[in-house]
Amino acid sequence: MGFYSDRILPHVIEATCGMPAMRKPRRRACAGLAGSVVEIGFGSGTNVGCYPDDVTEVTAVEPSDKAWEMAAERVAASTVPITRGGLDGQRLPFADNTFDAALSTYTMCTIPDLPAALAELRRVVKPGGTLHVLEHGRAPDADVRRWQHRLDPIQYRIGGGCSLSRDIPKFLVDAGWDVVELDQYYAKKTPRLFGATSLGVFRSA
Protein backbone atom coordinates (compact mmCIF):
# COMPACT_ATOMS: atom_id res chain seq x y z
CA MET A 1 0.00 0.00 0.00
CA GLY A 2 1.05 3.61 -0.55
CA PHE A 3 1.49 6.12 2.25
CA TYR A 4 -1.93 7.72 1.69
CA SER A 5 -3.80 4.40 1.54
CA ASP A 6 -1.94 2.87 4.45
CA ARG A 7 -1.55 5.80 6.88
CA ILE A 8 -4.10 8.47 6.03
CA LEU A 9 -7.10 6.73 4.47
CA PRO A 10 -7.93 4.70 7.62
CA HIS A 11 -8.39 7.98 9.49
CA VAL A 12 -10.60 9.35 6.70
CA ILE A 13 -12.76 6.22 6.81
CA GLU A 14 -12.93 6.38 10.61
CA ALA A 15 -14.13 9.99 10.42
CA THR A 16 -16.77 9.37 7.74
CA CYS A 17 -18.00 5.88 8.59
CA GLY A 18 -17.43 5.92 12.34
CA MET A 19 -19.76 8.79 13.20
CA PRO A 20 -22.20 8.23 16.10
CA ALA A 21 -25.11 8.46 13.65
CA MET A 22 -23.83 5.28 11.99
CA ARG A 23 -24.38 3.16 15.09
CA LYS A 24 -28.07 2.58 14.42
CA PRO A 25 -27.69 1.20 10.87
CA ARG A 26 -24.67 -0.82 11.98
CA ARG A 27 -26.75 -2.42 14.74
CA ARG A 28 -29.48 -3.15 12.20
CA ALA A 29 -26.95 -4.79 9.90
CA CYS A 30 -25.59 -6.94 12.73
CA ALA A 31 -29.01 -7.98 14.03
CA GLY A 32 -29.53 -11.72 13.71
CA LEU A 33 -25.86 -12.64 13.52
CA ALA A 34 -25.00 -15.69 15.58
CA GLY A 35 -22.16 -18.11 16.17
CA SER A 36 -18.86 -17.71 14.39
CA VAL A 37 -18.77 -14.64 12.10
CA VAL A 38 -16.25 -13.56 9.47
CA GLU A 39 -16.20 -9.79 8.95
CA ILE A 40 -14.57 -8.51 5.79
CA GLY A 41 -13.29 -4.93 5.81
CA PHE A 42 -13.11 -4.83 9.59
CA GLY A 43 -11.36 -1.45 9.45
CA SER A 44 -10.89 0.27 12.79
CA GLY A 45 -13.56 -1.84 14.43
CA THR A 46 -16.56 0.45 14.11
CA ASN A 47 -18.94 -2.52 14.36
CA VAL A 48 -17.56 -3.58 17.73
CA GLY A 49 -20.32 -3.20 20.28
CA CYS A 50 -23.01 -3.83 17.66
CA TYR A 51 -22.68 -7.62 17.59
CA PRO A 52 -25.62 -9.48 19.16
CA ASP A 53 -25.07 -11.63 22.25
CA ASP A 54 -25.49 -14.76 20.11
CA VAL A 55 -22.20 -14.04 18.30
CA THR A 56 -19.51 -16.25 19.83
CA GLU A 57 -16.48 -15.02 17.89
CA VAL A 58 -15.53 -12.65 15.07
CA THR A 59 -12.72 -13.24 12.60
CA ALA A 60 -11.62 -9.91 11.13
CA VAL A 61 -10.37 -9.66 7.55
CA GLU A 62 -8.53 -6.34 7.22
CA PRO A 63 -5.67 -5.44 4.83
CA SER A 64 -4.56 -2.26 6.60
CA ASP A 65 -2.14 -2.62 9.51
CA LYS A 66 -2.93 0.97 10.49
CA ALA A 67 -6.67 0.32 10.65
CA TRP A 68 -6.07 -2.80 12.76
CA GLU A 69 -3.83 -0.74 15.04
CA MET A 70 -6.59 1.86 15.39
CA ALA A 71 -9.02 -0.92 16.32
CA ALA A 72 -6.88 -2.16 19.22
CA GLU A 73 -8.82 -0.51 22.06
CA ARG A 74 -12.18 -1.54 20.65
CA VAL A 75 -10.98 -5.11 20.13
CA ALA A 76 -9.57 -5.28 23.67
CA ALA A 77 -12.82 -3.98 25.16
CA SER A 78 -15.09 -6.24 23.11
CA THR A 79 -17.21 -8.80 24.94
CA VAL A 80 -16.96 -10.94 21.78
CA PRO A 81 -13.54 -12.50 21.02
CA ILE A 82 -12.08 -10.89 17.88
CA THR A 83 -9.03 -12.11 15.98
CA ARG A 84 -7.46 -10.89 12.76
CA GLY A 85 -7.61 -13.81 10.39
CA GLY A 86 -6.97 -12.53 6.90
CA LEU A 87 -5.85 -9.63 4.73
CA ASP A 88 -7.79 -10.01 1.49
CA GLY A 89 -11.50 -10.72 1.04
CA GLN A 90 -10.80 -12.01 -2.47
CA ARG A 91 -8.63 -14.84 -1.10
CA LEU A 92 -9.81 -16.00 2.31
CA PRO A 93 -7.39 -18.32 4.14
CA PHE A 94 -10.11 -20.51 5.67
CA ALA A 95 -11.45 -23.99 5.04
CA ASP A 96 -14.83 -24.52 3.40
CA ASN A 97 -17.89 -24.13 5.65
CA THR A 98 -15.96 -22.53 8.51
CA PHE A 99 -18.33 -19.76 9.59
CA ASP A 100 -21.99 -19.49 10.55
CA ALA A 101 -22.36 -16.03 9.03
CA ALA A 102 -20.53 -13.12 7.41
CA LEU A 103 -20.65 -9.35 7.78
CA SER A 104 -19.65 -6.52 5.46
CA THR A 105 -20.19 -2.82 6.13
CA TYR A 106 -19.00 -0.12 3.70
CA THR A 107 -16.49 -2.54 2.20
CA MET A 108 -17.86 -3.93 -1.06
CA CYS A 109 -17.47 -0.57 -2.79
CA THR A 110 -13.67 -0.94 -2.69
CA ILE A 111 -12.96 -4.62 -3.36
CA PRO A 112 -11.34 -4.80 -6.82
CA ASP A 113 -12.78 -8.22 -7.71
CA LEU A 114 -16.07 -8.25 -5.84
CA PRO A 115 -17.43 -11.44 -7.53
CA ALA A 116 -14.32 -13.29 -6.31
CA ALA A 117 -14.86 -12.04 -2.75
CA LEU A 118 -18.54 -13.03 -2.79
CA ALA A 119 -17.63 -16.49 -4.09
CA GLU A 120 -15.08 -16.82 -1.30
CA LEU A 121 -17.70 -15.86 1.28
CA ARG A 122 -20.07 -18.50 -0.11
CA ARG A 123 -17.26 -21.02 0.22
CA VAL A 124 -16.34 -20.29 3.83
CA VAL A 125 -19.88 -19.71 5.17
CA LYS A 126 -21.78 -22.89 6.04
CA PRO A 127 -24.71 -23.91 3.84
CA GLY A 128 -27.76 -21.88 4.83
CA GLY A 129 -25.58 -19.27 6.51
CA THR A 130 -26.19 -15.58 6.01
CA LEU A 131 -24.28 -12.54 4.81
CA HIS A 132 -25.29 -9.27 6.48
CA VAL A 133 -24.48 -6.08 4.59
CA LEU A 134 -24.57 -2.32 5.02
CA GLU A 135 -23.23 -0.73 1.86
CA HIS A 136 -23.48 2.46 -0.17
CA GLY A 137 -23.70 2.35 -3.94
CA ARG A 138 -25.86 2.81 -7.01
CA ALA A 139 -28.59 5.39 -6.46
CA PRO A 140 -32.19 4.62 -7.49
CA ASP A 141 -32.58 7.96 -9.27
CA ALA A 142 -31.15 8.46 -12.75
CA ASP A 143 -29.99 12.03 -12.16
CA VAL A 144 -28.04 10.98 -9.07
CA ARG A 145 -26.55 7.99 -10.91
CA ARG A 146 -25.27 10.25 -13.67
CA TRP A 147 -23.32 12.29 -11.13
CA GLN A 148 -22.08 9.15 -9.43
CA HIS A 149 -20.60 7.94 -12.72
CA ARG A 150 -19.05 11.35 -13.40
CA LEU A 151 -17.39 11.49 -10.00
CA ASP A 152 -16.38 7.83 -9.77
CA PRO A 153 -12.82 8.42 -11.14
CA ILE A 154 -12.16 11.07 -8.46
CA GLN A 155 -13.76 9.02 -5.71
CA TYR A 156 -11.68 6.03 -6.75
CA ARG A 157 -8.46 8.00 -6.23
CA ILE A 158 -9.29 9.64 -2.91
CA GLY A 159 -11.41 6.80 -1.50
CA GLY A 160 -8.94 3.95 -1.79
CA GLY A 161 -10.62 2.38 -4.80
CA CYS A 162 -14.16 3.18 -3.65
CA SER A 163 -16.89 3.23 -6.31
CA LEU A 164 -19.99 5.36 -5.83
CA SER A 165 -22.06 3.51 -8.43
CA ARG A 166 -21.74 -0.22 -7.72
CA ASP A 167 -25.06 -2.05 -7.63
CA ILE A 168 -24.18 -4.13 -4.58
CA PRO A 169 -27.45 -6.13 -4.33
CA LYS A 170 -27.12 -7.16 -7.99
CA PHE A 171 -23.55 -8.32 -7.42
CA LEU A 172 -24.79 -10.40 -4.47
CA VAL A 173 -27.65 -12.00 -6.38
CA ASP A 174 -25.42 -12.69 -9.39
CA ALA A 175 -22.94 -14.40 -7.05
CA GLY A 176 -25.59 -16.81 -5.77
CA TRP A 177 -26.77 -15.03 -2.63
CA ASP A 178 -30.57 -14.97 -2.19
CA VAL A 179 -32.24 -11.91 -0.70
CA VAL A 180 -33.69 -12.59 2.76
CA GLU A 181 -34.43 -8.95 3.49
CA LEU A 182 -33.30 -5.72 1.90
CA ASP A 183 -33.90 -2.07 2.76
CA GLN A 184 -32.69 0.53 0.26
CA TYR A 185 -32.78 4.21 1.16
CA TYR A 186 -30.92 7.50 1.16
CA ALA A 187 -29.08 8.07 4.43
CA LYS A 188 -30.19 11.21 6.24
CA LYS A 189 -27.89 14.25 6.30
CA THR A 190 -25.70 12.68 3.61
CA PRO A 191 -25.42 13.84 -0.01
CA ARG A 192 -27.38 11.44 -2.20
CA LEU A 193 -24.26 10.72 -4.24
CA PHE A 194 -22.80 9.00 -1.19
CA GLY A 195 -25.93 8.15 0.77
CA ALA A 196 -27.71 5.60 -1.42
CA THR A 197 -27.70 2.69 1.03
CA SER A 198 -28.44 -1.04 0.88
CA LEU A 199 -28.96 -2.72 4.25
CA GLY A 200 -29.94 -6.36 4.29
CA VAL A 201 -29.42 -10.05 4.80
CA PHE A 202 -28.59 -12.57 2.07
CA ARG A 203 -28.43 -16.35 2.19
CA SER A 204 -26.25 -18.61 0.09
CA ALA A 205 -28.38 -20.13 -2.68
Automatic annotation (TrEMBL):
Entry keyword set: Methyltransferase, Transferase
Q: Does the keyword Methyltransferase apply?
A: yes
GO terms for molecular function, please? S-adenosylmethionine-dependent methyltransferase activity
Question: A Pfam family in this protein?
Answer: Methyltransf_11
SUPFAM superfamilies linked to this entry: S-adenosyl-L-methionine-dependent methyltransferases
- Protein name stated in the entry: Class I SAM-dependent methyltransferase
> What domain of life does the UniProt record list for this protein's source?
Bacteria
Annotated ranges, domain Methyltransferase type:
38-131
Q: Has keyword Transferase?
A: yes
Single Gene Ontology BP annotation = methylation
Q: Which InterPro entries match?
A: Methyltransf_11 (IPR013216), SAM-dependent_MTases_sf (IPR029063), Thiol_S-MT (IPR052356)
